[in-house]
Specification:
20% helix, two-stranded antiparallel sheet, 4 helices, single chain, disordered N terminus
Length: 172
């Protein structure tokens, strides 16, 4: 069984092309299967944390949990210019991300070149992240607490993946 890949040029017998980017094998009775485009979109819309991997100078990866929004083709998250994550991406824009649900053992992994842009390019990103991750009855309190973070020091990281892998499980 092959993984759901954006860069896989050929498909094997029994696979079905769902969209240009995704190859999907029909699910068996149970076990692991590759996500189709609809399952991938639904999974990434849920409030799962993402772990971003950036490359440190002469060392291993630097891993950072982030809240994100998937816009249908890119992962979007913000960070401060003073962060190690920002410095690593400026130096080497190759990053990886995993979004994992430890309860269902479902995950999406993506790889590619990150782009750093100003908040003005995605003015509603902060609100979208708050709506995704914070319960409605706590949003006002959360927003008030986070007003202390200077917007001027934040940037948006955009990862339009070169490759996406998604795996899910069904009952046996």
């Amino acid at each position: 069984m092959s993984l759901l890949c954006a860069d896989k040029p050929l498909h094997e017998p029994g696979e079905v092309r769902v969209q240009q980017l995704f190859l999907v094998k029909p699910a068996k009775k149970g076990g692991a299967f590759n996500m189709d485009a609809e399952a991938l979109q639904a999974f990434l819309a849920k409030p799962h944390d993402a772990i971003i991997s950036t490359n440190r100078v002469g060392k291993g990866s630097q891993l950072s949990p982030v809240w994100f929004v998937w816009d249908g083709e890119s992962f979007l998250f913000s960070t401060q210019r003073a962060s190690v994550k920002y410095a690593n991406i400026v130096r080497d824009p190759n990053i990886s991300v995993i979004v994992n649900d430890p309860v269902t053992h479902t995950y999406v992994v993506a790889y590619g070149h990150a782009e750093i842009v100003g908040l003005e390019r995605y003015p509603e990103l902060g609100n979208a992240i708050v709506e995704k991750y914070i319960p409605a009855d706590q949003r006002q309190q959360f927003s008030a607490a986070n007003q202390a973070i200077e917007r001027a020091s934040r940037v948006v990281i955009v990862l339009k993946p070169a490759k996406v892998v998604g795996r899910a499980w069904t009952a046996l």
